[in-house]
Structure formats: structure tokens, C-alpha cells
Known about the structure:
alpha/beta; 6-stranded mixed beta sheet
Amino acid sequence: MKLMLVGRTGVGKxxxxxxxxxxxxxxxxxxxxxxxGQVIDTPGExxxxxxxxxALNVVSMDAQxxxxxxxxxxxxxxxxxxxxxxxxxxxVIGIITKVDLKSDTKMARNFLNLAGVEEIIExxxxxxxKILKNYIGGANEN
Length: 142
């Protein structure tokens, strides 16, 4: 199964993509939609600018699971209420990143619940990502 990651710039979508695909972690600014293994990494601008929502919807056709990514450090959300409803017939999950940097994830959980996610997974630098790998069938397990 393919997982499409959606979130603002800097929440950790590319790092998460690299971890899921067992790539060396290196910072790079995602300039366009990037297909790596079973993960679709989208630019943050696609959710930060409502004019790109249509592009997100088109790209989502290639995915079975949509991951709305929210950093535990952010005090605002780019996801409007019921944002998940734009992805018809898709499983929409919430992913909270950077949980090792802030233990209280209540605000991030609230943002994701308002966006309409079905389930929330917490990810940090040292956190296991097995749950996410199980969703996409192991993501290039060697």
C-alpha cells in the first residue's frame, strides 16, 4: 500500500520518508511530489496554500492511505476542520512527529482529530516506526 504524507513545511515528512525506506537521513527541501518506495512525500506548500488542494487530491489517487503530519512542537495547524473528507474512500491517519522533543502531544492530537483522522500515531527520532511500516507492508524491508 502507498502512504501519502501531507503536512506543512518542516514537520518531518521527508525525514519520515527516508526512515521508512531505510535511507540515510539527509535534509532536503521537497520541491515537488516525490515517490520513494511505498511513500509519497508532498511539498509543504501543497497544504499551506489552498490553491494546491486540487493537486493534493490528484496525487492522492496513487495512495491508499493518507497521513496528515503534525509536529508536536507546532502551536497552530494548517489542516482545516474535516480536511480528511477531501480524500474520498481513503484511510486518513494522523502522524505526530518530534514527540521526543515535546512530551505533551495533546494539542497536536486535537488538531488532527479536528481534521478528521481515523487514528493517530506518534513518531519521534528514537521512536519505533513499526506501526507505520505495517500500514504500507514493510516499506522496503530488506
